[in-house]
Amino acid sequence: MNKLENLVNWFEDKGKVLVALSGGVDSALVAYAAFQKLGTSAIAVTADYKTLAKEELDSSKQICAEIGISQILLDYNELENKEFVKNDSNRCFHCRQELGNHLMNLAKLNDVKFIVDGTNLDDLGDYRPGISALKQYGIRSPLVENQLTKNEIRDLAKSAGLSVFDRPSNSCLASRIPWGQKITSEQLLRIEFGEKIVKQATNLKQVRVRDLKGVAKLEVEKDKICVLTESSILEEITQKLKMIGFSDVIIDLEGYQSGKINVIAD
To answer: Is 30 left (phi over 0), alpha (psi -120 to 50) or beta?
Structure first.
């Protein structure tokens, strides 16, 4: 039996299941496996909590359409959560704690016993306080329980015909703001628009615009930095980013790395 079949069979006898679905490949594979085994007893749930980029929300809808799974959108505003907005090292914990509470309430309304997410084996080696928050609610992680790494997940998603199999990893827009720097709606809009500007100018997929007290720090994969440093492209990007409110633009010459600004801002 191959790994995809094992994942599908993990849902045997689970009854009705809620799948916490983002716009990425991990939760997409979980949703696919759940739907293959449970059909309409599997429901995807995507939280539109106002720190999620629109392209992620659009991706989640596309994933559900491809799979055929029904989707529920949870609509709430994380910026109303004071613990989240103050943006300390436990920001992700407060985010996932609130999500877990909403998912539990939804599960009760729909008589669902199991909630699952897209946490994978590689995630456990990173600093991710949000994972422990979700565990408090008994939320299961089929990819971890089936010992699946990110690369394996991409391969399985490709074999399953999911278009997001090669989609770059992403996270909420608040992750672009260093700990200790208060999160505002204006910052989030500026970051989202800024990343769109950089992607359109460069045709790069993996882009981060870090907001360092109004300075835009551009992060792309190390072997793609040369695209950013081309004078005409950099001039265009700088001009547009300043037009939307950034005071200056710098390039991170070390290249993209997940969680790089998980430090307290001075």
So the answer is: alpha
- Domain residue spans of the chain: 3-166, 173-251
CB 198 within 8 A of CB 227: no
Query: What is the average per-residue pLDDT within 165-172?
Result: 89
Domain 173-251 has CATH 3.30.70: yes
Residue from 26, 23, 29 nearest 59 by CA: 23
DSSP SS3 for 72: strand
Q: Give pLDDT tens digits for 217-260.
A: 999 999 999 999 898 999 999 999 999 999 999 999 999 887 65
Domain 3-166 has CATH 3.90.1150.10: no
pLDDT tens figures, 139-148 = 999 999 999 9
Reading phi first (left if > 0) and then psi (alpha if -120 to 50, else beta), residue 169 is in beta
Contacts of 242 (CB under 8 A, 6+ apart): 248, 249
Interacting residues of 83 by C-beta distance below 8 A, sequence separation 6+: 90, 94
